[in-house]
TrEMBL record:
L-aspartate binds at K86, R169, R223. This is Aspartate carbamoyltransferase. Residues 6-148 form the Aspartate/ornithine carbamoyltransferase carbamoyl-P binding domain. NCBIfam families: asp_carb_tr, PRK00856.1. It comes from Sagittula marina. One of its GO terms (molecular function) is amino acid binding. Its EC number is 2.1.3.2. Residues 157-302 form the Aspartate/ornithine carbamoyltransferase Asp/Orn-binding domain. It is an enzyme of class 2 (transferase). The lineage of its organism: Bacteria, Pseudomonadati, Pseudomonadota, Alphaproteobacteria, Rhodobacterales. Signal peptide: none annotated.
Amino acid sequence: MRFDHRHLLGIEPLRPDEITTLLDLADQYATYNRGRDKNAQALAGMTQINMFFENSTRTQASFELAGKRLGADVMNMAMQASSIKKGETLIDTALTLNAMHPDLLVVRHPHSGAVDLLAQKVNCAVLNAGDGRHEHPTQALLDALTIRRAKGRLHRLTIAICGDVAHSRVARSNLLLLHKMENRIRLVGPPTLMPAGIDAFGAEVYDDMREGLRDADVVMMLRLQKERMDGGFIPSEREYYHRYGLDAEKLSHAKPDAIVMHPGPMNRGVEIDGTIADDINRSVIQDQVEMGVAVRMAAMDLLARNLRARPKTVMV
């Protein structure tokens, strides 16, 4: 199994065969997680530290559960009460943690590039759990696994990514991954929620929801990231739902067997109608949550193998 990386900081450095390797292993862990015995030992004797500078429910719980199922000693750091709040720099925090000799560091941070900076200062493997508007690689990988299991393949599909693309690291990571796997990508949303330089993304862009969803195999809704907005990006939530919220009428323009996705947390009645989100024949939102644990297990397993294979170094 080839996965030639010390860290998992983003999708951009991954080759298509490495993505497939990780998804194949995650598929095995998805089956394993449905069994009674969930006591794997891939990370036995290793220490995993979760550092979340932003609030998270799904991602943090998923990484914690993944580490414990692989046999790691898992520690969650309460960053809201950490020395960062007392003025310590991120680099000093990294050096302090490095002196404790962890093996895996899982980091979510509100600033783009912060996780990469931290990774340069530690000996252990670092996993990016989301940094600013930059990337959220494990979310894209779990989305890919969910699509592959639902559709039987991960290539030559028409995938519509809808909503707040401008503020979404999920959208960016999915764009990178799905392009590498030879899919047709559509970005659908109001012009105010499209990033600058959108033409360079290699995707089709629509501001009409019905046109954007026409004959799509996958409809991926995004959360309105109001915490990252500092102006009037939308007239109102009611108007946004009328034009861009996913309901049965808009979904009817996609293929009859199109699946519906959302990274969560969902704003029901704003981004998506509750009946669509709960429709077991169309929605794979709960499958995404399930695949999140499997993908994170696979990612940490592969990084741990590389960690064990290389000689120990001392950072000065």
